[in-house]
Each structure stands twice: as structure tokens, then as C-alpha cells.
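Please go through the protein record below and explain what the C-alpha cells say about the fold. Record follows.
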Amino acid sequence: MRCTNGRYAGRRGAEEMGPPNGFAMLPWLFMGMGAFSNLLQGKTPNPWIGGVGLLVFNSLYISVVFRAFRKEARQAPATRWLLVAMTAVTCGLAIGYGGTWLLFFPLLGLAVGSVVRGRRLGPTVLGLSALAGVIAGVRDGWGAVSVAYGTFISGMVTAAILALSETVRELRETRQELARTAVEKERLRFSRDLHDLLGHTLSVIVVKSEAARRLAPRDMDAALVQITDIESVGRQALTEIREAVTGYREGSLAGELDRARSALTAAGIALVVRQSGPPPEPGTAALLGWVVREAVTNAVRHSGAAQCEITLEGTPERVSLTVADDGRGDEVVPAMSCGTGLTGLSERLAASGGSLEAGPCPKGGFRVRAQLPVDALQSAPSC
């Protein structure tokens, strides 16, 4: 446990360090300590010119590297002009003094590598290295090779490290966005499941409670049967809600048909079930179970129908489920417009390659028709 926590803490600490910034580039200014030492020891002719040049170069370097870590500032024309000014100052100091002053070329390479990106990086660094080599060759002979090489390496390595850092930062932001998206999808799944579960269950409880109230004065035994059903529906609802919370709920078309028969019978609606073709696969059956639950709930709540038909037709490619009633079809649409059940079902089926149609029948009543491929995935609705 201690080791696991240590790895977690190390991972967390690495993430909290964040990307490099301008302060990470400042220690490289110590490469100019040789020139600064020569100024203090009086080994540099015209020390005031050298001192002013050193101050200007350091100021330009600090300004450029801090601007390099903000994309807008890095791409601004002012940053390019600062690099041009740095190049001019570096060339002037190198030509005028040579020796340790030539080390300002690798520092200039660092600044260029921190700013320039993309296809311009290679030609720019190569051109700067060639310029450093020519000037160092005039002032220092064969030492020009190391100056040119150092300028090239400092520019390219700096650019590579910073590009990698930006990529890591983008990947981290993408991971965080994916995590937020996953949370939003899970919340949507949970809200849909609760809507479908509680909407159907509460409708059944209300209908059976009304039936028990009507039967109680004249047939107590029949009323007790309805009350027993209410208790059973309530217990089943508790189980389904727990399963929905943990994400393991698996719908059953046969179970939904049984619950639909019980709910419709309690509401005084006769149920007719017709089935043809091969039985659907488990994933497809689970999705169709949600369609039966929502359509029957709406029929019990709004239709005022006397009969409801559920037709299941299977082919080798697709499965079709139709739930139709003979109630007040024109009045069902506005009553259902305030809910999210059919909208959620449409999204569920669309995610699995299916479709959902709902509306009044030409001869009266209301019809819900769902079509799905035979191999629809049950996990798709959770998305």
C-alpha cells in the first residue's frame, strides 16, 4: 500500500510540475560569465561598450524566452524583431571582442529554438549556425567548429524539448476533456435510466393503487391482490435502481412484456402480443425492452385506450418492434412533449444503428415503432 501511494504521489507530483517556463531558460545566461569576468578584470577594450552590449543582450534574451512560452506572444511580430535585435547585438559583440564573447551565439540559438516552430526552424538554425561559424572563424580560427556546432545543437534541442512539452500539455488537456466527457455521458445514462425506471414504475403503482381503491368496497380479495402487486413492483424498482446506479442493469424483453401486461391489465387495457421471425439477440432484446417500457408507460398515462398491441418482427438483418394502441392519439403527442423518454430512446437506438418513430396512427390511437440491427450492442445506450 505504501509503494502504491508512493507511485501515485510521484505521478501526481510530476503532473503538478506543469510545463517549463521562461525561468527554466535563465540559468543558461551563465555561459556569458566569461565575458562578464573579462569586463570586471579590465581585459576587454572599450569596457563601457561591452557592458552596455552585455546588458542589452541579456535583456533581449530574457524578454524573448519569456515570450516564447505564450503562443500569442511567441507568434507576434515584436518577438521576431527582438530576435533580429539579439542577432545584431551578438554579431557586433562577437566581431568586436571574439574569445568568450563568441559563446553568445549558442545563447542566441537557445532563444531562436524557443521561438521558431515548424518548417522555418531548420533553415533558421542552419543559417544562424553558418553565420556563427563564419564570424568565429575570423576571430578564433578552428574554434569556429565548436561555436557553430554548439549554436546548432542548442537551437534544435531546445525546439525539440519545448515541442515535446507542448505535446504533453495538449495530451494532458485532451485527457482531462475526455474525462469530463465521460462524466457527462455517465450522468446522461443515469438520468435516462432513472427516467425510464421511475416513470414506468410510478405509473404502474398509481394505476394499481387506483384499481385497489375501486375494488376495496366490493371485493377486498381482489384489492389485496393489487396491493400485493404494488409491493412487488416497488421491490423490483428498488432492485433496478440499485443496478442502474452501479451500471450493471441488463434489460429483458420478456420481463418487460410481463410487466407491461400487468400494468396494462391494471389500467383496464387489453394487451395483444404478436411475434414472428427469430428471437432477437440479447443486446437487441435489451434495447427493445426499453422501448416496450417507455411506450407502455405512455399508453397507461395518456392514451385512454382499450387495447394495446405489441408486434415483434425479426429478419436476418433487422428487428422491428411496434407498440400501438387505440386511444387518443392526437392528445398523446402534446402530453408527451414535456418529457424526455422518447427523445432518450431515439438517441439510444441511433447510437446502436437503429431508429425510432412515434406519432398518431391514421385510424386513431398512437404508435411507437423501433427498428434495430440484429447485432445491436446493449452497451451503446450508456453512451
